[in-house]
Amino acid sequence: MADEVVLLDFWVSPFGQRCRIALAEKGVEYEYSEQRLAGEKSDLLLRSNPVHKKIPVLLHAGRPVCESLIILEYIDETWPESEKKSPRRLLPDDPYARARARFWADYVDKKLFDCQTRLWKLRAGEASHEQAKRDMVEVLETLEAELGEREFFGGEAFGYLDVVLVPFVAWFHAYEKLGGFAMAEICPRLVAWGERCKEKDSVAKTLTDPEKVYEFALYLKDKFGAK
Questions:
Q1: CA dihedral over 87, 91, 96, 101, signed as positive or negative
Q2: What pLDDT, in 10s, does the model give residues 203-220?
Q3: GST N-terminal domain location, by residue (predicted)?
Q4: Residue 90: inside a domain, yes or no?
């Protein structure tokens, strides 16, 4: 019980998936607990995250850690070495590089997720939906510029910001369908980065099938009356 790790999550959540990828990168064994997206929430979730009442939540020795970016840092600090006992920190050692990684992680959560949500919440053809499409393209181009010519966002090694962003790669297909644009034309380097990330077992075993993600996005559009 002292080292028991449980992740409260939802299958398609990019926020939960980043936690799963980080745990896999560290070689941490954990129990996965699927939660409900809608309807009555489990008692465990309500007890573990009484403030926001949402996933993901990491339970470590019964103590809850909430909010995915905070969970990532907790995982990085609690298990600083990989399963092979070699240094494998997700965040950079340099303070400035850490600050930049946190800045861009915040950008992903505030900008990319907002555009994604508006793509399926707003009705196609309406002015607000057209603006959401333009905003999404701008965000993707901004992330592409930050990546530049590097293999990964942190340089040559897969790290913190890669873990933060890579779950959204499974949503790229939905972006194209709902936004009416081609990802390979807008951000070819970002698409190639996503393919490199998927070569890692931690990512390949975690990301949801893009077609299933798109079906889920259509479910959300229907739920919000945006079809």
A1: positive
A2: 999 999 999 999 999 999
A3: 3-83
A4: no
pLDDT digits (tens, 9 = 90+) for 95-105: 999 999 999 99
Q: If phi over 0 gives left and psi between -120 and 50 gives alpha, with beta otherwise, what is residue 125? A: left
Nearby residues of 42 by Cβ (< 8 Å), 6 or more positions away: 8, 35, 36
100 and 187 share one domain? yes
Which residue, among 72, 189, 176, 196, has the nearest Cα to 116 in the 3D structure?
A: 176
Give me the DSSP letters along 171-192. GHHHHHHHHT--HHHH-HHHHH
Full-model pTM: 0.95
pLDDT at 1: 56
Give the confidence band of 39 by pLDDT, cuts at 50, 70, 90.
Answer: confident
Shared domain check, 212 and 123: yes
